[in-house]
Amino acid sequence: MTADVVSGAPSDLRHRQVRIYQPTRNTMQSGGAKTEKWRIDFDILQGGGRWENPLMGWASSADYMQGTRLSFRSKEDAIHFAEKQGWDYYIQASGAKRIPPKNYAENYLYRSDKLRLMKTK
User: Fold this and answer.
1) Nearest to 66 by CA among 46, 36, 94, 37
2) Which residues lie below 8 Å from residue 118, measured CB to CB, with a gap of 6+?
3) Helix ranges (DSSP H) in 30-97
4) Does the N-terminal or the C-terminal CB of the chain have fewer CB atoms within 10 Å?
């Protein structure tokens, strides 16, 4: 028996699809502190009751699960939790890019195929 039957959650929540992925590092930071964990996000419902607040212009939504994020230590833990809850899920492949280390001296290396920057002032 899955946990969603016992939990009392609405039936709309039972058949929603969730995305399991490993987040990339923040582009504004050089470190990769939060990239080891795996995350579950709920997909946005089509026609999920979105509207714009006329007073402030904020976007509002009737989808209460839209901002919910769950973090896990491993991919297997996230898959196990989604299966236990009875959710349909898909795993998004992580496109981890490795940043090659650079030395300061590489700024002044001569390469015949690449022009160096030359400052005149």
Assistant:
1) 46
2) none
3) 75-85
4) C
